Every structure is written in C-alpha cells, then in structure tokens.
Amino acid sequence: MTTRSVPTRPAPSARRRVLPSVRSVFHDALDQQLLRRADGIADARRSPPDVWLRAAAAVCMGELERRWAATQAEDLALLTRKRAPARGEAPPRRVHYLSMEFLMGRALGNALAALGLDDEFRRHLAASKLAPADVLERERDAALGNGGLGRLAACFLDSFAMLGLPSFGYGPRYEYGMFAQKIVDGCQVEEPDDWLRGGGSPWEVRRPELQYEVGFGGRVESADGRRRWVPAKTVLANVYDFIVPAPGSERVSTLRQWRARATGSIDFELFCRGEHVEAGRERIEADILNWVLYPDDSTPAGRELRLKQEHFLVSASLQDIVQRHLREQGRIDNFGDKNVIHLNDTHPALAPVELMRLLIDVHGLDWDSAWAQTHKAISYTNHTLLPEALETWPVWMFESLLPRHLEIIYEINHLFLDDVRRRHPHDHDLLRRVSLIDESGERRVRMAALSIVAAHRVNGVSQLHSQLMVQSIFADFAHLFPDRFTNVTNGVTPRRWLMQANPGLAALIDEQLGATWRRDLDRLHKLAAHATDRRLGRAVMKVKRANKLRLAALIEREVGVRVDPDSLFDVQVKRVHEYKRQLLNLMHVIARYHAMLADPDADWVPRTVILSGKAASAYRAAKAIVRLAHDVAAVVNADARLRDRLKVVFLPNYSVSLAEVIMPAADLSQQISTAGLEASGTGNMKFALNGALTIGTWDGANIEMAQAIGEEHLFVFGLRAEQIAQRRAEGYQPRAHYEHDARLRGVIDALLRGDFSAGDPGRYRSLVEPLLDHDRYMLMADFDDYLRAQREVDALYRTPARWAEKALRNIAGMGHFSSDRTVRDYVERIWSHVP
Predict the structure, then answer these.
(1) CA separation, residue 99 to residues 176, 212, 293, 686, 785 (Å)
(2) pLDDT surpasses 70 at 22
(3) CB 564 within 8 A of CB 606
(4) What is the pLDDT of residues 237-256, one digit of tens each?
(5) In 3-state terms, what secondary structure has residue 608?
(6) Which of 383, 456, 607, 627 is flagged as catalytic?
(7) Is 574 designated active site?
(8) How far out from the chain centre does Cα 576 lie?
(9) 84, 213, 597, 815 - which has most CB atoms within 10 Å?
(10) How do residues 477-491 score in pLDDT, each as one tens digit?
(11) Which one is catalytic: 686, 713, 763, 816?
(12) Could you confirm whether 686 is annotated as catalytic?
C-alpha cells in the first residue's frame, strides 16, 4: 500500500459547495427530530437537553451513514481494480485494526465539527436559551476503553478517516467499562460504568444481517485427512458499527463492535419446573462476555473470561474479514495480498491462529499456503517493556476452551523451533527462551512470542522503546528476525485534542498562521519564529487562564475544593501504576509542604497539584497511592498556615471528556515514569500541544518531544535508562539516599509516622518500606533531581513572559506528533510491506 493508492478526498472548493446544503438539511431535520422526540412537550424549542442530544445525533447520523456508504463503495472500487500495481507500487490492502480498547469519548461534538455544523447547532440552541455545553455534556463517554492503548486506537480511527485509508477497527462492545471510579473516605470504590443506560448509544448502527458463530470447548475430530473442531458451545457475534468522520472530508472510518448473544433460547422445560436461572444459563454466559472491559483476572474465573473475550473478538473479526474478502475477490489464496490484520498489543494475538484455522479447516488451504497468507497479513505493535505485562495463558485453559487453536499453536511452534534448531544447532537455551510454550513451572502459551513469529512486522511506539525492545525482552527474536522489527512513534489527533478541546487556542493559531495547520500539523513549527512575541505570549496565556477558570469551576463542583486559577496548575493524569510514579509526585508535595511550614513567609509560587486516574481493581499498591493522594490533600488543603498557596486535588473517574477539560488548563505536565519503562505516552503530547510545559524523565516519547521542541524548553530530570541498568548492576542501595537526604528522610518518616493518615502509621507501611530496600522504580534515586527540576519550574513561572515563550515553543514543536503522521508511518513501514 502506498499513500497514492488510497482514495482521494474532495477538493476544498467541492467541500465548500457541499456544506451549505448539509447545513440547510440539518436545520430542517433537527426541527423535525425535536418535534418527534419531544415526548409531549408543547414547545420543542424548550425541550430538555437530552432530547436535543438525541435529535442532533439522529440528524448527524443521517449524513454520516451516507458518507459511510460512499466510503465503502470507493474502497471496493480501489481494492477490486483489475490492473496490476505499477513498478515500485505496493498492492492496495485494507487495514483491519484489532484492539480490545477504543476509548472514543463523546461523539456529538466531534460529529458536528467534522460535518461543519458547529455554528448551525449553536444558532439553533440560542433560540431556546441553551448553550452547546448544556447538550454536549449530557452525552456519556463510550466505555469501550481504559487508557492510552484505547485512546491511541481512537486517534487512529480519526486519522484513518482523515487520510482516506481503506480500513476497519474491530473491538468488543462492552455494556460496562472497566469500572466507574468513586471515592469513599479517600478510597477508590469500583462501580459499574453503565454507559448505555437511558436508551443506549445514538451513534451505533445495528447490523442484524451480519452475525457469526464463535465456538468454545469441545473436541477436535479427523475426517478425510483434515482436522475439524466441534465446539461444545457457541455464541453469536452481532455487529454494531460506529462511524468516525473527519473534518473537511467525505471519507469516514468504521469501528465494528461485537456483541455476544446466545445461539438458542431458554430451556423451557427447566423454566416451567421453576429452575429459572438454569433455564437461561446459555443466555447469561453469552451476556457475560459483553459485560466488563478487563474483568479482574486475580481469580481463575476472571482469567478464563478474559481469554474468552479475546477469542470472541478475534474469531468474529476474522470471520468477517474473510467473508468480505471472498465477496470482493472470489478467492482465498490472495488473502494476505489484500488484507492487513494489525494486533494492537497481545490481546488479539489469537488472530494468526484463528486465521490459520479458517484458511485450513474451513477453506481448504494446505498448511504452507495458509501460513504464507497469514504471515503476509499479520503485523503487531508492542506497548510494554514490563515482562509481567506480556500475556501468557495456561496450556490447560487452551485445552479446555480452544483445543483446535492449541493444536495449531503447537504446530507453529514445532516448525519455528525446527528452523531455529537448524540455524543454531547447539543452542538449547535459545530454544527454551523463544519457544511459544513456556515450560518452566505451569506450562503457558506466550502470546507475544506467538505474535512475533506470525507477524511480518513488529513495532515499538517510540524510538527508545523500540530500541530497548530489541535489546531486552525480544532480544532473541530480534537476533533471529533482524529485519522484522521497526519503530513507529505514537501520535494524537489534533482534531479532538486541540481544535475541539481548546477552540480558543486553535483560533489564536489560525490568526497567526492561517487555517492550513488544521490539515497539516507540521505547519505549527512556524510558531517558533513568534515565540518571543510578547503580544502573542500574552494572548496564549489569556486563553490558558480561561481554560483554568473552567477547570477550577469543575474542581469546585466535583470535589468541593476552591483553587486559585492564577496558581501554577501542576497536573498528572493517567492510569495509576507504580512505574508511572504518582508516588514520587506526592513525595514532592509532602517535601514542599514541609518546606513551606519551615519558612512560611518565603515567596512561594502558588501551586495546585491535580491528579486523576484509575487503579486496577486488584492492584493494591496503586489503590493505596489513590488513597494517599486523598490523605495528603486532606492535610494540605486544611492547613491555614499555607495561606492557600498549595492545594492538592484528585478528580475521580478519569475519562476522555475530563481530559478535554484538564489538558487545555494545565501549566505543567508530569511525565515522570521510571526511565526505560514508559513505551511512549500520548498524554505528554496532548499537554504540550495545548501549551503545557513538561517535567519528565528521559523516557518514551518525552525524548522525541525534547528533540523536537528543544530539551532546554522542558524540565528533564532523573536517571536515564542506561544509568538505571548500571546502578542495578552495581547493587543499588536506596537506603543510602534516605540516610543522606534530610528532605527525603522527612517525607519517608512522615508517612511511616502516620502524619498523613490520621495517626495510623501502618496505613502506608507496605507502600513505603519497600522503597528503603528494593525501590524497583527508583523513586529514591530520582527524588533529589526531581526537586531540583521543580525549583526550576517555580523560577520560570515567576517570569510570565519567559513561561509564555516556552509554552509557544512547546506548541510549535508538536507537529510531528499528529496521529496522521503516525498512520502514514504505519502505511510506509508496516502495512505496505508484503513479504
């Protein structure tokens, strides 16, 4: 595939001719929808915001469905063209992006912006004395993801549409998100995230004509020299399509979501005997597959449910892809020439196995032909360097749930190890290390190894991550397949994360550069020439303050804390995990608190520390960090001696919509993971794009951001990955830092005394004591340099003109970090490559 092979978008002049008619239709259709949905309200223009939301969504969906049909017709024409590719031109292939998460956020604002209907919607609302926020904020976030993995996938769908890439996203349709986070007495409490309540989502297109059977359990039989799987149970996979538009383009992309339903009805005889639950067991077991994203896997039942969810996604998606290919091509032996199946991390790693099963068992290809097509089609992105985060599954679970798939995995492994044995005949330890089956202890299937062996390309998501990936966790595979590994640095969509989330800043950039940057983010680099323009700097800070006022109002409304919008907004929002080091952030807060009490009359820069993020329900240390944030906030916010110059806030239930308010308001972006452990990060990009300055380690995409912006315009601190490796090799002694740094000792002692836990000294003992002897994530080693960088932050914030200059340089350096560039890199480096 090349960028020349994707459908072209209408010329700008053509789009301008189209939009007025769309606006006219929108105006009339919205009136009709409001009247239809007013439910007895006499005056539709005074109808409640929920009615407006449904009406506007219905009208937008009419236009989106028209564009969806046109996009599919264009893709079909492209992919079924008869001519052979020109010299040097890759054959066009449709990309199928498989992910357990797609964190889409709210859809109405995005649809209105993409269709050019923002102003029309605003005018329509004005007559009923409603503001757009009154309606837009009534929409619930689609709970189809959790964090960066799902948000990246959502950004890719946006870019697929923008670039006109023939594509589908595939994911499960969860009825509940991972969980809704509630805080009770400072502790995280998990509740169902019932995002579909109140009538479901108005953005889904139900496709009852498309459904596939997905099997579990059973046995494998032999007949006519072929193996055949006979599942013990099957469920039906039903389709719900979610259409993703792009501004200024007739093209859209599609997220195809799967909902499991029972193949049969209730057992009526059992029901009549009063055994009601047992009568409906088949329906209940199917429904459970849809219930929750990432069920707690601390129990065998939870682990089994996760594997079943992953197989359900993969099997339904692969059946759909194969059937579409046969409709379009009429043959199966060119499948890999026409299709890319991309694995977003190891959750969909069963895809090559299921594809092999379909090609061999269902469509009659021999092993070698099926493997050739599978290898051409599969590509894989790794998102972690943590060995414990690489999925493995017990062999016994495969034997129970997916016996035919286990047979295929064994055969893949047998042929792969035979090849390794021929190339390295005496290296028995290498065979053990690269085998798809981990034989140490409980026998387990290594899903990352399976993905690498099956894929024609494997990529990391930042330069450092990709480098460390081939030097550490996948070093053996990189030695065996040196040409298989590459890098594609992550990106974010500027449509949502600047134009939609921060319209004031977007308008200011329009005034300075014109609007061309909206389609080509690289043009932001021209702002660097104006970074010292005091007038522009003041304008940027004026927009920032308006965003801070909005966030301050949200903070007071949600958690009852009043914060100073002129204080420095110091923000860390992300999944709570020990390697992301929210604990280091809180240690700085405590050290700052101690210093302020020791010298209350000093000229302290007022600071509001804002945290948000969910801890996995079974992750005790992460949940303790959430509680500590609240305990620290309770002490600091109540201490009158600080004169409101330090506040700590934890905003519950972090989401895309909450991020859209937080990120435009942030002054300082905390990206402080232990160097070498953050694969990339995308929050760091979103913050910088909105004019926040980064305090961070030399890790993930922080490095490439520093190279693009200028390292002097970030606050970089801490040990680098190679220094950490050296420290550990030399025998790192974290207690020495405690003994020689009075500030650090004061923080640790305060936590152990219970100063921030109502005199309960045992509350954080399990969190803090390991820092003294183990400190896996190097908090003690980085503490002093972190405080040094924070002093630099204070000094710069005292000079607003210099702060504004650096904010502008951050914005100017973010052109490279558009997801449009990321997707183009995938096309060039991965999806165009047909081995």
Answers:
(1) 17, 19, 12, 22, 38
(2) no
(3) yes
(4) 999 999 999 988 899 999 99
(5) strand
(6) 383
(7) yes
(8) 14
(9) 815
(10) 999 999 999 999 999
(11) 686
(12) yes
pLDDT at position 126 is: 86
Q: Which of 374, 392, 489, 682 is catalytic?
A: 682
Whether residue 27 lies in the annotated active site: no
Residues 6 or more apart in contact with residue 759 via CB below 8 angstroms: none
Q: Note the pLDDT tens digit of each residue in 674-687.
A: 999 999 999 999 99
Residue with structure tokens 């402080």?
Answer: 672
Flag whether the pTM goes above 0.90.
Answer: yes
308 is catalytic: no
Is pLDDT larger for residue 572 or for residue 78? 572
Among residues 322, 477, 337, the alpha carbon closest in space to that of 833 is found at 337
Does the annotation mark 575 as catalytic? yes
Rounded to the nearest 5 degrees, what angle is found at the Cα of 807, between the Cα atoms of 789 and 678?
Answer: 55
- Active-site position among 173, 574, 588, 737: 574
What does 255-273 look like in DSSP terms, one character per residue?
EEEEEEEESS---HHHHHT
6 confidence band (pLDDT: 50, 70, 90): very low
DSSP state of 142: B
Confidence at 388, pLDDT banded by 50, 70, 90: confident
364, amino acid identity: G
521 exposed, middle or buried (CB, 10 Å; 0-12, 13-18, 19+)?
buried
Structure tokens at 575: 């999944």
Judge whether 609 and 592 are in contact, CB under 8 Å. no
Is residue 614 part of the annotated active site? The answer reads no
Strands (E), 77-218: 94-98, 167-172, 180-184, 187-191, 204-216
* Active-site position among 580, 627, 806, 809: 580
- pLDDT value at position 239? 97
Return the pLDDT at 278: 83
**Catalytic residue, candidates 9, 376, 575, 630:** 575
Radius of gyration of the chain (CA): 27
